[in-house]
Amino acid sequence: MTDTIAEGAASAPSALSLVPKTAVKQTMKDFKSDQEVRWCPGCGDYAILAAVQGFMPELGLAKENIVFVSGIGCSSRFPYYMNTYGMHSIHGRAPAIATGLAASRRDLSVWVVTGDGDALSIGGNHLIHALRRNVNLKILLFNNRIYGLTKGQYSPTSEVGKITKSTPMGSLDSPFNPLSLALGAEAGFVARTVDSDRKHLTEVLRQAAAHPGTALVEIYQNCNIFNDGAFEALKDKQQAQEAVIRLEHGQPIRFGLDQSKGVIRNQHTGDLEVITVTPENEHQVLVHDAHATSPTTAFALTRLADPDTLHHTPIGVLRNVERPVYDTQMSDQLDNAVELKGKGDLGALLAGGDTWTVVG
Amino acid sequence: MTSQVSSPAEQAEPADQQGGQSPVGGQRTGDGGKEIRRLDRVIIRFAGDSGDGMQLTGDRFTSETASFGNDLSTLPNFPAEIRAPAGTLPGVSSFQLHFADHDILTPGDAPNVLVAMNPAALKANLPDVPRGAEIIVNTDEFTKRPMAKVGYDQSPLEDGSLDGYHVHPVPLTTLTVEALKEFGLSRKEAERSKNMFALGLLSWMYHRPTEGTEKFLRQKFAKKPQIAEANVTAFRAGWNFGETTEDFAVSYEVAPATTAFPTGTYRNISGNLALSYGLIAASRQADLPLFLGSYPITPASDILHELSKHKNFGVRSFQAEDEIAGIGAALGAAFGGSLAVTTTSGPGVALKSETIGLAVSLELPLLVIDIQRGGPSTGLPTKTEQADLLQAMYGRNGEAPVPIVAPKTPADCFDAALEAARIALTYRTPVFLLSDGYLANGSEPWRVPDVDELPDLRVRFATGPNHVLADGTEVFWPYKRDPKTLARPWAVPGTPGLEHRIGGIEKQDGTGNISYDPANHDHMVRIRQAKVDGIAVPDIEVDDPTGDARTLVLGWGSTYGPITAAVRRVRTAGDRIAQAHLRHLNPFPANLGKVLEGYEKVVVPEMNLGQLATLLRARYLVDARSFTQVRGLPFKAEQLATALKEAIDD
């Protein structure tokens, strides 16, 4: 594993090294398109849009080399509001489309905007394969735990027993944990943030943008029409003390009032547990290592939250390791082929094999 | 089957049903004292178990024949199972080759020679073989168990059921093992070379050049020199067996087809290879990198394999997680300025339909290559059919017109790929290319084109504003169309100032912004249709040598060879018939309606239940008569000729 990481690191120094830089200083305004934003008033998507538009100038990239690709759903309207290149595609397919674009154009910064239905239901296959392939894509998964655009059916992240129009007696199926899924699909960069915490959201975007390969950012997003308050436990100041675990690489995993709680590993089961920190057990508190080669601890962190109450929800970058990047390697193969065989000669190719000549 | 022939020889392929091999050009005696007869053409079928290497044997005989300069046409026919149960009827794999000293059009209706490697191969193929034909059987396999497996109670070699055939009983396995006894191979290993023994024997019978096969074997088994030499030895032993044994008293010569071909360099090529080369050529001629997004599916996978070999041409081949991702990635690459292609077969097209609709809406160039196979559903993966025409034409939600082109012979797949690329790039649209299993795996001689003769497919990306607003501001409108082609500008990411958003929601004419306006939608639906309807395609040419035929036979795609062969028979028999063949199925050539009006009767042979006929009837109110077969095999010229004759006489 160490070897492959070293290899990947050697051929992919940074996600953005091939993307041209902007010649002029940009502001948030440069990234606003002339289109009227048409989400419901109060939708969490507004906050995410503002955060992304506000963050983009910081990257210092030529605006024309940035592309937003989306699928279908409320969140997928996002590209229309970004004054970059963009494609609003079809349901679930954005990762596939973005893969072709990113793999053929390494000079672009390609972002995918998707939702819990788009990415995890109809497009689940493309999501997991994009992650394992590690194409240079930044996937923003807006998770509101509901189908908004189709007016309120339960989604693959809705809690069991969810009462919706399509499940009047409660939904039966267990939800996906998107970050567990991503780690199972070999994702190298996995993070979670919340729509209303602009500072945190921006910091996560910053790290995602710099990551070579696929980055998955799950953004908890409030749908105030069909699933209002779904993440209230993480937003209400008082509740958040208990509910939110802010992860920072290299820091002990502590949270709660006066950082009174901590996460330790159970020596017998290997699982993670929350304890009340005392001077005696303080040394047992885990130090967060986003760069750990093994995804085991990151996976355990994704399982920490209670799916119903959302208590003990880690946010931040859970995993950030470098793996060989698909588009870099694809490009290297093309270069190697030219080195080995010379630049393709069409005339020679067509006349290859056994030939014979007919003279008139 | 040379589509390049400028003036097709009006030489009819005589009916194959007589079997046997009748000399046309006299006879002579060879060095070994054996008689040598001259033939103008021969049809050979190699048949054996799936594991017997019949496809390889056929391929090698084809290569020998091609390098000798005969015209040829091939029909590989194999089960979908990789290793069907040994010795059973479903497990039989065959390869038919028709070669001649003149221009031919089909793999032939009925073999003059059948090579049967086991009882199953004999039983499965005998109904196609006319009395009088030669049958070479591997007698070693005609033992109790293998015969019982296919329901032979008695040996057909002894019970008189092969009376009327010219049977050569040859213990192929024993002779091969004997020839290889010096090699110290296990019996099982040695037996594997029996196909090369058979190839050697047939190569002797027809005076095929052997250097190519020996070179091929040494290359193929370069890492196992002992196996290479064993195969070469078996091959030579087969040749020598023919030369010495008295059972083979006669050998045959089929002269090169020198007059059938225009001057040039030739090679033998299959449809999928020609198509792959056509795509690489289109990429070069367009000066755009080629991107293939594909998911493996029979019989299209060979294009994925072939293109993956040519990365030094800048080809990016992407094996996707599914059919949808294959076309999705291709569409993404098209947005980025690649010549984008997805390759598949019918079931894959069904999965790609929604993305093809998106490409129609985005108005980006995209090639959708459908190597049709028997359907519905999984159908007959390794067999041919033409039943995706209506799927290509209409198989999407909403009004989503897509141009369609179809190659007519294996070699023609090269030109069809260039033509599909021309339409896609010029009109910024997805384009269907409908090949099929018969074209994909069949092969024929191909005159290698001069690269300088290939069409110029270069495109202009948008580089700046294309519209001035009322207040004088210069802006870029992604859906402002070229007045002539109605194509929209192709503005690729990375172009400063042209940042724009496209998508599958209906767009406002010009600006490309989201629009739900009724009048705008009506306009956009009609303009997308008008763009496809307005694609410039050449007029259809009618071949009507007497100029007064009252019946027209109209085909499309891979039926070209059988239809043309049937037409020759009809004309040789003294009847008048006109023939035309469609390369463009959407839009139809502008003169098609007029052409159809000119004939009392129009016959449309198709390997479906009349899909083109349906389109013709709807569009031109013509009483097109369907002649259809869906047997997973190409039409036989004789049957078609009968059907045409009936239509003429009706």
UniProtKB/TrEMBL annotation, chain A:
It comes from the Bacteria. Residues 72-219 form the Thiamine pyrophosphate enzyme TPP-binding domain. InterPro entries: 2-oxoacid:Fd_oxidoreductase, THDP-binding, TPP_enzyme_TPP-bd. The keyword Lipid metabolism does not apply. The keyword Mitochondrion does not apply. SUPFAM superfamilies: Thiamin diphosphate-binding fold (THDP-binding). GO terms for biological process: cellular respiration. One of its GO terms (molecular function) is thiamine pyrophosphate binding. Gene3D superfamilies: 3.40.50.970. Keywords: Oxidoreductase. PANTHER family: 2-OXOGLUTARATE OXIDOREDUCTASE SUBUNIT KORB, 2-OXOGLUTARATE OXIDOREDUCTASE SUBUNIT KORB-RELATED. This is 2-oxoacid:ferredoxin oxidoreductase subunit beta.
Automatic annotation (TrEMBL), chain B:
Keywords: Oxidoreductase. GO terms for molecular function: magnesium ion binding; oxidoreductase activity, acting on the aldehyde or oxo group of donors. Residues 549-614 form the Pyruvate:ferredoxin oxidoreductase core domain. Transmembrane segments: none annotated. Residues 1-35 are annotated as: Disordered. Residues 291-505 form the Pyruvate flavodoxin/ferredoxin oxidoreductase pyrimidine binding domain. One of its GO terms (biological process) is response to oxidative stress. SUPFAM superfamilies: Pyruvate-ferredoxin oxidoreductase, PFOR, domain III, Thiamin diphosphate-binding fold (THDP-binding), TK C-terminal domain-like. InterPro entries: 2-oxoacid/accept_OxRdtase_asu, PFOR_II, Pyruvate:ferred/Flavod_OxRd, Pyrv/ketoisovalerate_OxRed_cat, Pyrv_Fd/Flavodoxin_OxRdtase_N, Pyrv_flavodox_OxRed_cen, THDP-binding, Transketo_C/PFOR_II. Pfam families: PFOR_II, POR, POR_N. Residues 51-238 form the Pyruvate/ketoisovalerate oxidoreductase catalytic domain. NCBIfam families: OAFO_sf. This is 2-oxoacid:acceptor oxidoreductase subunit alpha. It comes from Streptomyces malaysiensis subsp. samsunensis.
